[in-house]
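Re: beginner question about structure tokens

> Can someone show what the tokenized structure looks like for a real chain? I only ever see the sequence side.

Sure, here's an example I had lying around. Input first:
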Amino acid sequence: MAYIGQQPSAVITTTAQIQDGAVELVDISAAAQASLGTVDFYGFKKLADGTLELEYSNGSDDVSVANNNTEQSDKYAESFVSKRGLSFSVDSSGNLNVTI
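And the corresponding structure tokens:
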């Protein structure tokens, strides 16, 4: 298995060394992962009273994106994965703003 980052066993030198076109997280050294930064999952849903609710993973990898019902319907109206630590606010015009 090839490895990206400090060399524990081998280094990827050609695309042929990447099986099935994927690089798994375990293939990336801890130092390389740290330099890439961490990400969070962000999900938005509108509540019955009209307010917007934001849920985020905070580094967790066990986030459910479907309601646990017979239809397994989407839990969020909109969702995305991005850099950890985004801040959200709503301005006086009702616009949702994000700060990195």
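Each token stands for a local structural state, so reading them left to right follows the chain. The radius of gyration is 19 Å.
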